[in-house]
Amino acid sequence: MSNLRLHFLGTGGGRFVMVSQTRRTGGLRIIHDDVQIHIDPGPGALVFSNWAGLSPQRLNAVIVTHCHPDHYGDAEVFIEAMSHGTKQRRGIIAAPRSVLYGSETCGPSISAYHQKLVESVELLRSNASLHIGNLKITAVEARHSDPDTVGLRIETPSLGSVGYTSDTGYFPELGGLYRDLRLLILCTMRPRSQPLEFHLSTDEALEVIRAAQPKCAVLTHFGMMMLKVNPETEAKYLEDETGVPTISARDGLEIALNKSIEASGPGKKAPPRIIET
Length: 277
Prior knowledge:
Layout: E1 4-8, H1 15-20, E2 28-32, E3 35-39, H2 45-51, E4 61-63, H3 69-72, H4 75-82, E5 92-95, H5 97-100, H6 112-115, E6 120-123, E7 129-132, E8 135-141, E9 150-155, E10 161-164, E11 183-190, E12 200-201, H7 202-212, E13 216-220, H8 224-229, H9 231-242, E14 246-248, E15 254-257, E16 260-264, E17 273-276
Parallel strand pairs: 3-4, 4-5, 5-6, 10-11, 11-12, 11-13, 13-14
Antiparallel strand pairs: 1-2, 1-15, 2-3, 7-8, 8-9, 9-10, 15-16, 16-17
Helix pairs in contact: 7-9
């Protein structure tokens, strides 16, 4: 039976968490049947991918949502692995203009040399879609200090859809862009009452979840202030306020989408959380 698995190889975000590795910044690996996609491989993605038994040589695509190093740090290394040591033009790079070509504010962050190593380079901008295996990936509007940033909607043939906000500031339409999802992953940098321009805090994640009404929400991409408060406390607050099951991601978390949503790890001591949807 088809399933979708998400491996959280890093749940940290921002400069200070990135340089200290208080939480890893390895991004997110998605596996659907025989297709493997890595989203936002920041610094450490290579090491922790191999450590988790998820060889980057098995990748079919690398997606980078914007041109900041906590999201692209290991992208070029992953591309070399995906192309089997540059010996085979293989795989897909999908990224916005700033990452591929540079913009007024930043980039490029993937060289022209590395872009020539793959079979296809896809430009991501709001509402643009591509297919990777049986998955349909659609870019979603985001509002970040890199103006080319996009979020993602990932649609499966039979298991529903997953959303990933990437880094974005809040705007009133944001929640509506992520309706009709089984799982919504929110990059939530700051806790309650500590907003930060161009990022989501818990207060703003609350508004997004209320509007989107996913079957399950996952918080990730935590900054130092969020870690000091404890993201699990913030996730419980959001679940209590919205009624939507909300998980605080940890490095090594794995989520499987089948008939239910099962969140397990890291480690084997804690029982998995199973959410019936």
